[in-house]
Amino acid sequence: MIGGLFIYNHKGEVLISRVYRDDIGRNAVDAFRVNVIHARQQVRSPVTNIARTSFFHVKRANIWVAAVTKQNVNAAMVFEFLLKIIDCMQSYFGKISEENVKNNFVLIYELLDEILDFGYPQNTDTGVLKTFITQQGVKSQTKEEQAQITSQVTGQIGWRREGIKYRRNELFLDVLEFCNLLMSPQGQVLSAHVAGKVVMKSYLSGMPECKFGINDKLVMETKGKGPTTEDQTRAGKPVVVIDDCQFHQCVKLSKFETEHSISFIPPDGEFELMKYRTTKDISLPFRVIPLVREVGRTRMEVKVVLKSNFKPSLLGQKIEVKIPTPLNTSGVQLICMKGKAKYKASENAIVWKIKRMAGMKETQLSAEIELLETDTKKKWTRPPISMNFEVPFAPSGFKVRYLKVFEPKLNYSDHEVIKWVRYIGRSGLYETRC
Amino acid sequence: MTDAKYFTTTKKGEIFELKSELNSDKKEKKREAVKKVIASMTVGKDVSALFPDVVNCMQTDNLELKKLVYLYLMNYAKSQPDMAIMAVNTFVKDCEDPNPLIRALAVRTMGCIRVDKITEYLCEPLRKCLKDEDPYVRKTAAVCVAKLYDINAQLVEDQGFLEQLKELLSDSNPMVVANAVAALSEINESSPSGVPLVEMNAPTINKLLTALNECTEWGQVFILDSLSNYNPKDEREAQSICERITPRLAHANAAVVLSAVKVLMKYMEMISDTEFVSVLTRKLAPPLVTLLSSEPEVQYVALRNINLIVQKRPDILKHEMKVFFVKYNDPIYVKLEKLDIMIRLASQANIAQVLSELKEYATEVDVDFVRKAVRAIGRCAIKVEQSAERCVATLLDLIQTKVNYVVQEAIVVIKDIFRKYPNKYESIISTLCENLDTLDEPEARASMIWIIGEYAERIDNADELLESFLEGFADENSQVQLQLLTAIVKLFLKRPADTQELVQQVLSLATQDSDNPDLRDRGYIYWRLLSTDPAAAKEVVLAEKPLISEETDLLEPTLLDELICHIASLASVYHKPPSAFVEGRSGLRKILPASTRLDMKKMEGSGDAQPAVIPSQDSLIIGDLLSMDINPPQVMQQSAPAASYSGPDLLGGGLDALLDVGAPSAPSAPLGPPSIPSNPATGGLLGDIFGLSSSPSTYTSPKTLWLPAVKGKGLEISGTFSRRNGQIYMDMTFTNKAMQPMSGFAIQFNKNSFGLIPGQPLQVPTPLTPNQPCDVSLPMNTTGPVQKMEPLNNLQVAVKNNVDVLYFACLIPMNVLFAEDGQMDKRVFLQTWKDIPTQNEVQYSINNVSANSDAVVQKMQQNNVFTIAKRNVEGQDMLYQSLKLTNNVWVLAEVKIPPSSNNCTVSLSIKSIAVDVAGGVYAAYEGILRS
């Protein structure tokens, strides 16, 4: 299991060092610094073996978080755990930075003591941790409170405490999709997938049992029997084919496996209910059509056409197209029909921003790029044109059908719960080669 | 709150200052001081001098302060064991605290203090805590047992903690169960005997599966990992466990998913229900693909594992090629892994897409990635024949870019393409030659030289090109030198007229000016071959090369199976067994359960069944040592012990064996049956005596000179072959004609027509003093590798001594190969005689033989030639005889003996399916009849 955990700043100075196992010595701290942080080459692997000691690292901003072990540990678990620690620290004190880590080192040590025992990860749920790792100094807890904490840390429903009460029972569902695309210059879709998640904010009293329904093809077909399904789909109730989905630990996985129903007791507040991935029938909100012409060795002409491909009544927002330019660009002339375009030398790219754009529209940008003559033989390889956007629908066609709330002990019914559903489609890696 | 200030302390008198602060009465000041101490400890300063003062702060009701003090204790207790005792009292007291958090904290910390005296005091509190009413304390105590086991295993066993831990597996709280499982797994793994201390059984497994649904994500990982060590007792159990684990594939934590995959992959081996397995395989793909949208570090682990899974079960992801396409912003380690998997998944169906992607990658910036992409194009060509042409075109395009490392990489793979598809793409050679000057990497240079040598007859100026390399011969990498030597010899064999000078030049460079033994040896082999038998040289050097395999870099199957049991772990990331990187305790090697693999194959029968044992490309190249060695030398060593290559390798295995300095049992010389121990010195003679006594007159041709002293660096060998008691012997006389004694003898045969190999190591009494002939009899087996020789009974021998490795060839008299069971039934004989077509009948006559038919019958019988029938036709005796060679080839003969018994001419007609043997059999008849 994990033998020790270190946090370094970008210079390689140790900010936090916690050793869990006897086989890890102080020299391990230095070995990582010398061989990885101070190494000359770029990092070639997140796992490094130095003298039979394995180092796992995750670098976020300027901070290195490293776990070290001498055993054959579960590598996936170590990385998931490192990411979880980062999450956890963020939720305690915000951004991970050298200053924040130093300012909170006592807290971090306390956390590390709690969530890792002899190198075995324990409960890492921040909501639960916050109930008893508080940095509030002496806090006399009653016996009941203590018992409640311990049963929550270890319990079956570790993510929710009893006795929550709201005057107004309310829940919010955000269907957030990241649309990923790789398109060839000729407009052929090389790969496209949607990574979606359903984020839920629940403000519900008691221990409510929730049942969540979506327009998943599998679910719809098991529900409706025989020909009715066909009618339904034909009657304009589109289904989404989900390749794979994952659930928050509150969802009863065995029930999903057998009955295809998503049922759970939600944590209080915000959490990620499910993640899913689809690859079929994605409606791509935007299409980029590039046209690049190299005129001699010192000039280049780029024309980019942007088409929006959704209902005219909807509005796309925060649209940004990034067109890479060669490293030896000396000047750029730009004309665009809509929005603002700028050449950013620091990014080696033309950034074209459009605040809003309705569906089924088309606009275009043309640029003349002047190049410095260089003697480097190496051809410039054009990185793809990438784009960002936000649209108010789910590109995969994902739909929430219902979310029912049952709380048998308290007497509020499903109808009294106020429910909000919102769909947001964002760009993931949305690239067109040119 | 600005705790950062603790990191910046004044240097002078720091410790002293801290000391006074720690002893301050004010609580607040104390706390500040402890924080400062911890900060100093973190950055690596030695603050152990403050031990007593810090421990004094332990008695506090402030939990935060307590934890800090504990942290300090864990760090320094080992260096101050006596003082650590001071803390024991507080620990014991804390273990009784009404607050479960404090009880757990005390037990947790005590387990981390590796001081014997503290350990003694730990036992009682631990026993209590394992039965604590609060689950939080119990789950902490469970881990503490593992800690204690690490410090003192005997104590844990004696105190009965193992039983208590086992009881916790049935605890009502899922997290207690999970931690107990984790602790037990660790204890089992580190058990010194390698035998698990606590065996899992079906009821326990059932409890674990129940807890699995309820515990935290990490707990699920512990449980799944421990399930992967369990071997279900039958298929039904395996199947039901699989069913209960499958829902885990939808978990958001990648570790849970991968651990579940591990269990499923392992148990699937046990399940013969193909329907069930194929359903399971279908369920595996989506979660694996989803892992690719996690953080890059997790992706990396996932990709390394997918690489294994794809090798084990290619079907799972065969339709998922697209998800492995490289994204522009992927970290380099993810890119390289994706590329690897893309090549593995490449097939005829998706090759077009893959190629266009690879072409795209070949223009990226990262040198390693680009190289790998170029190499991948070549591998696609080799893997999917239909795409070869497109791949070659793409590679040519890339060569035109003139980017140095791209060109070099392309040439390396084109060489492989040439090998796979000979006589197809040679038209591009001229383009390759244009880039000759830019090649500066050994592998690329060697590849180019190989190409020139292999196609010397089509390259007009091959001699000039090779000569240009020769100028800097001494400075070249040995890989290039070897290749150059071979290429020039090939050129000479193809165009002997105008390249004699060149070949002499390279041979002298290799044998005289080089101090690389490999190069010298190869030079000598060529030299001798060329000077003794150019025809044989041609056979050897220009021999047909074995096919190179389609898949490369496949893991060896047993290693792959082991790694499958380690999915998700570090071993699967490194692609190495744990023993390669974990110190000390070796543990048990994990193996997949005995599988129902036959059924599996049927199921996967869609053409791409499991890859059979496919040797890596490298080891195949080694196979034909003489003409190809474009591979780093370390591979040579690695594959040397595996002595059974296919393909022509003149003395390939033999050389390796010989080079094992006199190792008595060289790997390619399995020990023969210890029939007649051939004693050194007298062995030959004794053997002869025994031989004579049992079958008095087996014909043995006289010894001939095989290796003259001039050629043998002073060693003269003469010899013959004989057959005694059904065993073939090589009877040799070694004579040392040099001034110095010789030692370190070993012998090796090249592959030959009858699969002859030495039955035991050569035993020459050493030292062999000058001018003292020594007779040696070497029993031989016929179980070695077979390769047809010309003439059929040719045997190439290498003898090694302390001076050098010496080579000679000799002819085996066929009669030693006549087996004892060569008597054919009369009817069978008749039928066989009829069945063999007449063109397979060869006529010979033997002149000046003095024998009558009875004598002939007897003589032949002694040599295992059996007379089936005898006729008298017109005064002539007709004998019909049969014999069987050791390789089960039957030979039938008709012998016509004229009535006059002196100096007559015997005519012989020989019939056999394998007509090639006739010549040798005739020679044997002649020898026997004349004796």
UniProtKB/TrEMBL annotation, chain A:
CDD domains per record: AP-2_Mu2_Cterm, AP2_Mu_N
Organism lineage string: Eukaryota, Metazoa, Ecdysozoa, Arthropoda, Hexapoda
MHD domain: residues covered: 168-433
Cellular component per GO, a single term: clathrin-coated pit
UniProt keyword list: Cell membrane, Coated pit, Membrane, Protein transport, Transport
Subcellular location: Cell membrane; Membrane, Coated pit
Protein family membership: Belongs to the adaptor complexes medium subunit family.
Protein name: MHD domain-containing protein
Statement: the UniProt record of this protein carries the keyword Transport: yes
PANTHER family xref list: AP COMPLEX SUBUNIT MU (PTHR10529)
Keyword Membrane on entry: yes
Recorded topology in the membrane: Peripheral membrane protein
An annotated GO BP: intracellular protein transport
Pfam families (alphabetical): Adap_comp_sub, Clat_adaptor_s
From TrEMBL, chain B:
Source organism, top-level taxon: Eukaryota
Cell location: Endomembrane system
Record-linked Pfam families: Adaptin_N (PF01602), Alpha_adaptinC2 (PF02883), B2-adapt-app_C (PF09066)
Keywords: Acetylation, Membrane, Protein transport, Transport
One Gene Ontology term from the biological process aspect of the record: intracellular protein transport
Domain Clathrin adaptor alpha/beta/gamma-adaptin appendage Ig-like subdomain, residue spans: 699-809
Main localization of the protein described in the UniProt heading: membrane
Keyword Protein transport: yes
Membrane topology: Peripheral membrane protein
Matching InterPro entries: AP_beta, AP_complex_bsu_1_2_4, B-adaptin_app_sub_C, Clathrin/coatomer_adapt-like_N, Clathrin_a/b/g-adaptin_app_Ig
Record-annotated Beta-adaptin appendage C-terminal subdomain domain positions: 818-930
Annotated GO CC locations: clathrin adaptor complex; endomembrane system
Keyword Lipoprotein part of the UniProt annotation: no
Matching PANTHER family: ADAPTOR COMPLEX SUBUNIT BETA FAMILY MEMBER
Similarity comment: family membership: Belongs to the adaptor complexes large subunit family.
Protein name: AP complex subunit beta
Organism the protein comes from: Allacma fusca
